[in-house]
Amino acid sequence: MLKATGIVRRVDELGRVVIPKEIRKVNNWREGDSLEIFVDDDAKVILKKYSPIASIVDINSYVESLAEVTGLSVIATDSMGVISSANIANEASLELSKEVLEAIEAGEDVQFQAPIRKGGKSYSLLVAPVIRNNDSVGAVILISNREIREPDAKAASLIANIIGSRMAG
């Protein structure tokens, strides 16, 4: 359902429309972000922050394979949220904590303890960033109730690197 904002903007001579600061802030759209443009059957235009990770057709295969090999829960994310998961009981209740977002932004593999659901039990997390054009755009995250072993961490890093290379360009 669409919600009216009461904001009206003119299209300039180059076809541009300025998106109001309030809308950019609420949607976490920053200067330089790419937006995907959708048009529905009623000619309504919908803007969505573009996720290069979500555009990888076989992302689910990578995530499921990693979960199968490691026996751990696996999540693939972009900076907005979960894109794919395997061995997770209820994906809808997952959230990217401040620690996870900071680890993704850091651009280096990080292992720490944190809850994966608000107010939930803490787990061992390994965040392996997905790098595109020298920017961290998401992560492959391993989740375990024990310390994550080095071979599993290396496998997560490998999958993150493969995903990043699939987006290169």
Automatic annotation (TrEMBL):
It comes from the Bacteria. Transmembrane segments: none annotated. Signal peptide: none annotated. One of its GO terms (molecular function) is DNA binding. Residues 6-52 form the SpoVT-AbrB domain. Keywords: DNA-binding. Pfam families: MazE_antitoxin, SpoVT_C. PROSITE patterns: SPOVT_ABRB. NCBIfam families: lp_hng_hel_AbrB. This is AbrB family transcriptional regulator (Stage V sporulation protein T). It comes from Hydrogenispora ethanolica.
